[in-house]
Amino acid sequence: MDKKEGLNKNSNKKEFFKGRRREKPEFDQKVIDIARVTRVVKGGKRFSFRTVVVIGDKKGRVGVGVSKGPDMKASTEKSYADAKKNMIKLSFTGNTIPHQVSQKLGSSKILLKPATKGNGVVAGGAVRTVISMAGISDISGKMLGAKSKLNNARATIKALEQFSFAKNRASIVLADKEKVTKEKITDKK
């Protein structure tokens, strides 16, 4: 009889875990680079890991984060939080970018061109990851400078930032301020 009760307890436990579901995360994430970093101290060497993560919702929000930690899981979680802080939101709708853009960051140079519908993402490495996480489906990209995955990802974010809501809003506000100051100057004369 004890054996049957034990079986029933385990079966109830399994049913309990079957009913529980993991929540889907807000953003998809992709690790693009993991590096083992060594720091020399008095007693010897200390090892840590540096992780570069790209997150996005494939609906126009994307971010790149980098962080170090004692193990890969900790560094990945920290870089996810960093990417969330440094997220941009794109203002255009559709499957491609409105116009060609090039961006230089450090020694990395990125060139992004719009593509016709059905071409897909024609880019490599970190550029491809950032673009796909942003949700852009037709684009052509080229890395012209260094091969650093972190710098290429950051340069791509900076290039896409030209299409972001914040950038557009800031340029509109500046244009309005200039217009108001010009009107005040003409009114005084």
Outline the secondary-structure elements.
Layout: H1 2-19, E1 28-41, E2 44-56, E3 61-69, H2 72-85, E4 87-89, E5 101-105, E6 108-114, E7 121-122, H3 125-134, E8 139-143, H4 149-160, H5 165-188
Parallel strand pairs: 7-8
Antiparallel strand pairs: 1-2, 2-3, 3-4, 5-6, 6-8
Helix pairs in contact: 3-4
Offer a few descriptive terms.
single chain; 189 residues; alpha+beta; Ribosomal Protein S5, domain 2; four-stranded antiparallel β-sheet; four-stranded mixed β-sheet; 8 strands
Unreliable segments of 5+ consecutive residues: none
* Order of strands in the sheet with most strands: 1-2-3-4
- The percentage helix is 40-55%
CATH topology: Ribosomal Protein S5, domain 2
Structural class: alpha+beta
Tell me briefly what this model is.
The protein is 41% helix and 31% strand. The chain is of the alpha+beta class and 189 residues long.
Question: Overview of this structure, please?
Answer:
- The chain has 189 residues and is α+β, with helices and mostly antiparallel strands.
- The chain has one domain (28-167): Ribosomal Protein S5, domain 2 (2-Layer Sandwich), CATH 3.30.230.
- Helices cover 41% and strands 31% of the residues.
- It contains 5 helices and 8 strands.
- α3 (125-134) packs parallel to α4 (149-160).
- It is globular and about 75 Å long.
- The model has no long low-confidence stretch (mean pLDDT 84).
